[in-house]
Design goal:
Distance between the termini: 23 Å
CATH architecture of the largest domain: Sandwich
InterPro entries: Cu-oxidase-like_N, Cu-oxidase_2nd, Cu-oxidase_C, Cu-oxidase_fam, Cupredoxin
Low-confidence stretches: 1-18
Organism: Gossypium tomentosum (Hawaiian cotton)
GO molecular function: copper ion binding; oxidoreductase activity
Shape: globular
CATH superfamily of the largest domain: Cupredoxins -  blue copper proteins
Structural class: mainly beta
CATH topology of the largest domain: Immunoglobulin-like
Mean pLDDT: 95
Keywords: Glycoprotein, Signal
Number of helices: 5
Protein name: L-ascorbate oxidase
Number of strands: 33
CATH class of the largest domain: Mainly Beta
Radius of gyration: 23 Å
Helix content: under 10%
């Protein structure tokens, strides 16, 4: 066999193996995405189901598993899922956002192949196309620790997923029209817990069951559109043990504020009189509190839950103070045997500071949300494809927002926003909320250290207040009105990664951007090449695939 042919065959084999790592177990799923009627608030609306389920099925994985999900889009419109919090090391091709992937066309399928490399914790997946997230298509994604890695608490009797969120009875197509007409969504119609709301008439089926004397793990996620929630268990306290991939110092809480896009893991011990109890999710920072309940039933218990619900917290200050109680467990091992605290992030020199200021504006009479004076517009060509095919100049410009926005932003432009990041630089992001609504931001491809949240305006002197010892490493951060939040991270994961508002009407109307991190050596040690089967669209759809740039 000719040497060139041998090299070519080896390369094709290697390329197919890069996104699914040999030697680690593989779990495979086949999902059919369809329309269906859902009624979480008692009003039938058109929903989006995965294998007939709302919410969708759980993905139960273990650190370093290879995950294969073959998604069949049986809708009559494009559809795309993202795996929020999964870092996709060296593999932005599986991130499932419109800056990296073409949406799955109607009647077609796409197979995601990714590894949950060196991660543990509680996460979600959800759709990013149109306003599909308002109709379903979301579910839980858990990454369990490997057996050889000690977990800093005893094995629970069971492991439950609790997905709560606000809900709008208008339906997702009507919500999309509202936004495109230049208006905001207004208040939600209600809140659901795992797609349901207990009626409280004594006939509710339990969402979860517990046996007296045993301890249970609840993975709590806010998969809503725009509303922060407070979650609490009637008659029981919660012990926080994990937050978005990090073991935490194990404090007890009577209730937890969970902002949009966030996930917490708590332990609840069944130490009360055996009967039924409510788990409660209620809106935060809204003029009118909306409450949802679900039933937790003790095995062999007798008695309906008390109609007296545990009270919610009442102020912004309460939520500020709760954030300050969240601490990284420095001695616990996460995905690797070494303790989490062995990474001394507080001793690394900052190489670039980027301040992102969110504002609301009218552009041509229609509402838009912006970061540093630019409102993001989704191009028809994914940004990553434009880079890979060397046609980025036809799709977007790099660094088209300033690192330090002006004090007053009076004019807004509309275009894609892409930050050009230097590989392995240690970056400080300041999220400055100039508005009166709470914000929630997420970064794909990474976790970061949430070192501070404070009121007022940020200045370099504020760094003396940073938590440089045990801030939690996570992937979302809330920003309270007229306040700021600071995060620190090393940009060591090559690819192009979405920084977005998890408040979905803001995301839809421009409050997002991307960070491009290019391998300086074009090395497969830093990033994988475009996988076989990846969809092409936009200006690159008819172009021949370029030779693989990474070797």
């Amino acid at each position: 066999m000719a040497p060139l042919m041998i090299i070519t065959m080896f390369f094709l084999w290697a390329r197919s193996m890069l996104t699914v790592q040999g030697g680690d177990p593989t779990i495979t799923f086949e999902w059919k995405v369809t329309y269906g009627t859902i009624s979480p608030l008692g009003v039938p609306v058109k929903g989006i189901l995965i294998n007939g389920q709302f919410p969708g099925p759980n993905i139960n994985s273990t650190t370093n598993n290879n995950v294969i999900v073959n998604v069949f889009n049986n809708l009559d419109e494009p559809f795309l899922l993202t795996w929020s919090g999964v870092q996709h090391r060296k593999n932005p091709w599986q991130d499932g956002v419109l800056g990296t992937n073409c949406p799955i066309p109607p009647g077609k399928n796409y197979t995601y192949k990714f590894q949950v490399k060196d991660q543990i914790g509680s996460y979600m997946y959800y759709p990013v196309t149109a306003m599909h997230k308002a109709a379903g298509g979301f579910g839980g994604l858990r990454i369990n620790s490997r057996l050889l890695i000690p977990v800093p608490y005893a094995d629970p009797a069971d492991d439950y997923t609790l997905i709560a969120g606000d809900f709008f009875n208008k339906g997702y197509t009507s919500l999309k029209k509202v936004l495109e007409s230049g208006r905001n969504l207004g208040r939600c119609d209600g809140v659901h817990i795992n797609g349901k709301v207990a009626k409280g008439d004594g006939n509710d089926e339990p969402l979860f069951t517990m046996e007296a004397g045993k301890t249970y793990k609840y993975r709590i996620c806010n998969a809503g559109i725009k509303t922060s929630l407070n979650v609490r268990f009637q008659g029981h306290t919660m012990k926080l043990v994990e937050m978005e991939g990090s073991h935490t110092v194990q404090n007890d809480y009577e209730s937890l504020d969970v902002h949009v896009g966030q996930c917490f893991s708590v332990l609840v011990t069944a130490n009360q009189e055996p009967k039924d109890y409510f788990v409660v999710a209620s809106t935060r920072f809204t003029k009118r509190e909306v409450i949802a309940t679900g039933v937790i039933r003790y095995n062999n218990g007798k008695g309906a839950p008390s109609p007296k619900l545990p009270p919610p917290p009442v102020s912004w200050a309460w939520s500020f103070n709760q954030f300050r109680t969240f601490r990284w467990n420095l001695t616990a091992s996460a995905a690797r045997p070494n303790p989490q605290g062995s990474y001394k992030y507080g001793s690394i020199n900052i190489t670039r500071t980027i301040k992102l200021a969110n504002t609301a504006h009218k552009v041509d009479g229609k509402l838009r949300y912006a970061l540093n004076g630019v409102s993001y517009v989704e191009p028809t060509t994914p940004l990553k494809l434009a880079e890979y095919y060397n046609v980025a100049d036809k799709v977007f410009k790099y660094d088209n927002i300033p690192d330090d926005p002006p004090a007053e932003i009076t004019k807004v432009t509309m275009e894609p926003i892409v930050l050009n990041m230097t590989h392995r630089n240690f970056i400080e992001f300041i999220f400055e909320n100039r508005e009166t609504a709470v914000q929630s931001y997420h970064l794909d491809g990474y976790s970061f250290f949430a070192v501070a949240i404070e009121t007022g305006k940020w200045s370099p002197e504020k760094r003396k207040n940073y938590n440089l010892l045990d801030a939690v490493s996570r992937h979302t951060i809330q920003v309270f009105p007229k306040s700021w939040a600071a995060i620190l991270l090393t940009f060591d994961n090559c690819g192009i990664w979405n920084i977005r508002s998890e408040v979905w009407d803001r995301h839809y109307l421009g409050q997002q951007l991307y960070a491009s991190v290019v391998s300086p050596n074009k090395s497969l040690n830093d990033e994988y090449n475009m996988p076989d089967g990846a969809l092409a669209c936009g200006v690159v759809e008819s172009m021949p695939r370029p030779p693989p740039p990474y070797t």
